[in-house]
TrEMBL record:
It comes from the Bacteria. Keywords: Hydrolase. This is Alpha-glucuronidase. The keyword Ion transport does not apply. It holds the Pfam family Glyco_hydro_67C.
Length: 663
């Protein structure tokens, strides 16, 4: 399933078979998005023998219509309605965007869209902003390479120090993103280095070219900017957000951005975080900082996404009172109500940093007068770096369904009024995501951002149907079951062989791949597990620990704060316990560590076996790439098992109850 130089991912030509066989009537007027819809249908018809006409035409089987009338009312500019009556399937929208999403919905349904009768159903995205942040550098960074934490080759946008001349692949990316509902992309790293700072001013033309390539698929372009821009680019002596000249500088620069890109989405800012400049240097608050940029964007309807990943990365490991997990809440909750309406606080889903298991950040739900966006990480920095299969759908779904106030309070998916954001896992690799099965993460992200209540398993089904078109395969059941077998539980498997019970990290410092149990134990980054001969874990209780558990609302402060009620999978995140502590599962902590490491490796062996058995049903290039990655995953999983188990055997002196080999 390859088109040109890159994989077709979830839009192989065969996915358009049902649409491409029909007589379609496009009754939608003109406009770039409508032209995109027409192009998609015309291509499909060219391939499968159908026909598409614009206006006129009597006996269409598929009608795609834009209407300003009552039928379109209430759908918003991205929603659509679908109905089927008397042999005609009709998609109705109030504009081109909704029509495009409606068309992709029909593609997902395949032949089902053309069977029987269907009462009118309306579809609207739950979240207005469904965004991917690219941590792409224009210039190759000496340590981070071109894409920071990127595991899929170089950048899709930038090559040889500038925007790619041929943006065909960027357009193809936009198409894939639209098909899963993404509508915003930030095109450069939140760590804005010197070259990249200039994208805001003298190099905005390159950003405009990318925006032109993404626009036909309804995607708005955003830019990461440095808070020090007025100094770095404007030669001002200060970047103080309350300084009149600084504010005027942002206004002028922003006006020029909008001259180049009329529908520009806005800025993304990482300030006072891991060494980036920010308002603290001037004794100003993060609200002062965000609002200065928001004021410049406001006349054009733009938004500033201001990240809350603010913590002390020069921590003294001897100081047990400082807890990195507390930082975002401590910094930001006092500012609730002070942010401009077009300033969105972008909060990482967990309090630390995209670990395999974290509780939901207590900041979410704690700022009722502020628009929050939730940030997840599709790029698998701490979850196997796209060399391991780790489908994150269940993790993200758990986060989105979590109710910070407990009971029947709102879910995270409802509280994320500023949108859902993922750090993208795509690059210029032929398979987009390095590991072909990591495409499932990108797809699932888009679909969950559209509907945070969606069942991730059903989303995975969709992805499998589109990507592998099993109905066209020699053995649809074996193919579908096999794909589910290797993906469904892959996050749980990854968790089993890496850092146990929510304690996090234990990775090699710097690149974060592979085990190093004490890799961050005495580091300034605030990422500790405190294992000694008696026990392990971080006491974050209010009674005896850092007090982090007390940041939670509703029942959670109590649930997490007590060893008795804390869920097993988060026990070592919240508590320091003896190795003999008995989990709810009935196993001791130490035996859990041993058992799950062995289970995790066995599960990878089994997944590798299942994948090998699909060789006759999967495109050879894709099959070979995954098979090769399984060899590395298995090698790495064994390394994790042996290092973690040996470490804890040596610390605790407690033998494995089942007498397996621990080195
Ligand atoms: O997890 C850390 C990563 C950094 C990243 C940072 C962030 C872009 O290791 O590479 O920087 O998070 O989210 O800002």
């Amino acid at each position: 399933m390859r088109t040109g130089d890159f994989d077709a991912a979830w839009l192989p030509p065969a996915a358009f078979r049902a649409v491409g066989r029909r007589r379609t009537l496009l009754r939608a007027g003109d406009g770039p998005l409508v032209d995109t819809v027409h192009g998609e249908v015309a291509d499909a018809c060219g391939r499968f023998g159908g026909r598409v006409v614009r206006d006129g035409g009597e006996d269409a089987e598929l009608v795609l219509e834009v209407t300003g009338g009552p039928a379109g009312a209430g759908l918003g500019d991205e929603g659509f309605a679908l109905a089927r009556r008397g042999g005609t399937t009709t998609v109705t929208a109030s504009g081109g965007r909704g029509l495009l999403y409606g068309l992709f919905h029909v593609v997902r349904l395949g032949e089902d869209a053309f069977r029987g009768e269907r009462p009118r159903e309306e579809h609207r995205p739950a979240l207005a902003v469904r965004m991917l942040d690219h941590w792409d550098n224009v210039a190759v960074h000496p340590v981070m390479g071109q894409v920071e934490r990127g595991y899929a080759g170089g950048s899709l946008f930038w090559a040889d120090g500038r925007a790619r001349g041929d943006l065909g692949r960027v357009r193809a990316y936009g198409r894939l993103l639209a098909a899963c509902g993404v509508n915003a992309v930030a095109v450069n790293n939140v760590n804005v280095h010197e070259t990249e700072a200039h994208l805001l001013t003298d190099r905005i033309g390159e950003v405009a070219a990318i925006a032109d390539a993404l626009r036909p698929y309804g995607i708005r372009t955003h830019l990461s900017v440095t808070f020090a821009a007025p100094m770095v680019l404007g030669s001002l002596p200060t970047a103080d957000p309350l300084d009149a000249a600084v504010r005027a500088w942002w206004r002028g620069a922003t006006a020029r951005v909008y001259e180049a890109i009329g529908d520009f989405g806005g800025y993304v800012v990482k300030a006072d975080s891991e060494g980036r400049p920010g308002p603290f240097a001037y004794g100003r608050s993060h609200a002062d900082g965000a609002n200065a940029l928001a004021a410049a964007l406001e006349p054009y309807g733009g938004t500033v996404h201001w990240r809350t990943f603010v913590y002390d990365h020069h921590q003294d490991w001897r100081d047990r009172s400082t807890d990195r997990a507390r930082a975002a809440y401590d910094h930001f909750t006092p500012l609730d109500g002070e942010f401009a309406p077009n300033a969105v606080l972008q909060v990482k889903h967990g309090p630390m940093d995209f670990q395999v298991r974290e509780p939901v950040s207590p900041l979410i739900g704690a700022m009722p007068r502020t628009r929050l966006a939730v940030e997840v990480q599709a790029t698998q920095e701490y979850t196997g770096q796209q060399r391991h299969v780790c489908w994150l759908g269940p993790m993200w779904s758990e986060v989105l369904r979590f109710r910070p106030e407990g009971g029947s309070g709102p879910r995270v998916g409802e509280l994320a009024r500023g949108g859902l954001v993922a750090v993208s896992n795509a690059g210029d690799d032929p398979f987009w995501t390095g590991h072909p099965l990591a495409q499932a993460n990108l797809y699932t992200f888009g679909r969950l951002a559209w509907d945070p209540r969606a069942d991730p398993g059903a989303v995975l089904d969709e992805w499998i149907r589109l990507t592998f078109t099993p109905e066209r395969s020699a053995d649809p059941v074996r193919l579908t079951d096999g794909l589910h077998a290797v993906l469904d539980g892959s996050w749980a498997t990854y968790e089993k062989y890496t850092a146990p019970l929510g304690v996090g990290f234990m990775v090699q410092p710097g690149h974060h791949y592979g085990p190093s149990v004490d890799g961050y134990e005495y580091s300034p980054w605030g990422t500790y597990h405190f294992a000694d001969r008696d026990g392990v874990g971080v006491d974050r209780s209010t009674a005896t620990g850092t007090g982090y558990a007390g940041q939670y609302a509703g029942p959670w402060a109590e649930v997490y704060g007590s060893v008795e009620t804390c869920p097993d999978e988060l026990l070592l995140f919240f508590h320091h316990v003896p190795y003999g502590h008995v989990l709810h599962s009935g196993r001791t902590v130490i035996q859990h560590i041993y058992d799950t490491r062995f289970e995790g490796v066995a599960e990878v062996e089994e997944a590798r076996r299942v994948w090998a058995g699909l060789a006759d049903l999967v495109d050879p290039a894709r099959h070979a790439r995954v098979a090769e990655r399984y060899e590395e995953q298995l090698r790495s999983a064994r390394e994790w098992r042996d290092q973690v188990n040996s470490y804890f055997l040596r610390k605790s002196g407690v033998p494995d109850a089942r007498g397996r080999t621990i080195h």
